[in-house]
Write a structure and sequence with these properties.
This protein is an alpha+beta fold. The protein is built from 12 helices and 5 strands. It starts with a helix and ends with a helix.
Length: about 280
């Protein structure tokens, strides 16, 4: 296996492990994984860079990680380089910018939380991912027919064709997909793309005023023109994922024990591949 394929495999599995909230603290505390992700941000393969950004974005969702991530040598500089590099795809730049803004605000969050304490109802609306970035929004989809890895791959292909999709996370156990998109992209575009597979049908999950959930079907007679994405790197193949179980999310819930063993393997790879 080539060194580039090794890098793809490592960063892809780090991304999938980081998607599980149970793993995020351990990944950041590990001495090799966070520095390795930073080095991957400067990798010549755009697939590696984008997957590394997704992993960093997941890790940044844990507030306790942000201060350490911000202070990690090379983190902020590497994010700026991705944002400024002329060869970086548009969605890659947008994701790097979102992470930079989140980490830049680390340390100021306690004051912001105190100001927001009186507006708890408004804070409930910030439950979804991506609320820190005004240029991005999150749409939660319930997808009938999302039953196995084959359907998941088909759904991935449909979503990745849409210009404006930043990232997405599957929750296979409940047939849901959490999609982070640009603020100017309509949610109907996601429904149109998934419904075009002919084997799956999407509904939008929205929060009600009383904190419950409501499933809103997309109108079949009002298909939205979907702008095809051409400049984003291909999503890493499903066979590189550490978990193939159809009734699980991106990684197994409670996979922290297995994940720690794999983190040691990843750290060994990073140590062999880079000079610190």
């Amino acid at each position: 296996m080539s060194a580039e394929m090794d890098a793809l495999t490592v960063v892809n599995q780090l991304r999938d492990l980081a998607a599980d909230p149970l793993n995020r603290r351990a990944i950041v505390e590990d001495q090799g994984c966070l520095p390795g992700l930073i080095l991957f941000l400067d990798h010549p393969n755009p697939q590696v860079v984008y997957s590394a950004l997704l992993a960093v974005r997941y890790l940044a969702e844990c507030r306790a990680n942000r201060e350490k991530m911000k202070g990690e040598l090379g983190m902020m500089l590497s994010l700026q380089n991705v944002m400024q590099k002329s060869t970086s795809p548009g969605e890659t730049k947008l994701l790097a910018s979102e992470i930079f803004e989140i980490l830049q605000s680390a340390g100021k969050e306690e004051a912001e939380q105190a100001e927001a304490a009186a507006a708890s109802c408004q804070r409930k609306a910030h439950f979804f991912l991506g609320s820190n970035n005004k240029r991005a929004k999150t749409v939660v989809l319930h997808i009938d027919g999302l039953d196995d890895p084959t359907r998941r791959s088909l759904c991935e292909e449909a979503l990745l064709k849409i210009r404006g999709v930043i990232s997405f996370t599957f929750q296979m156990a409940v047939k849901r997909c959490v999609v982070r998109i640009r603020s100017d992209l309509k949610a109907e575009a996601l429904g149109t793309a998934i419904n075009s597979t002919k084997v799956m049908k999407a509904q939008q999950v929205v929060k009600t005023d009383d904190g419950g959930e409501l499933m809103v079907p997309f109108q079949e007679d009002s298909a939205v023109l979907v702008e095809e994405n051409t400049d984003i790197p291909d999503y890493l193949p499903e066979e590189e994922s550490p978990s193939q179980e159809q009734d699980k999310a991106v990684t197994r819930v409670g996979s922290i024990t297995d994940g720690m063993g794999w983190l040691s393997t990843a750290a060994n790879f990073l140590t062999r591949s880079f000079y610190w």
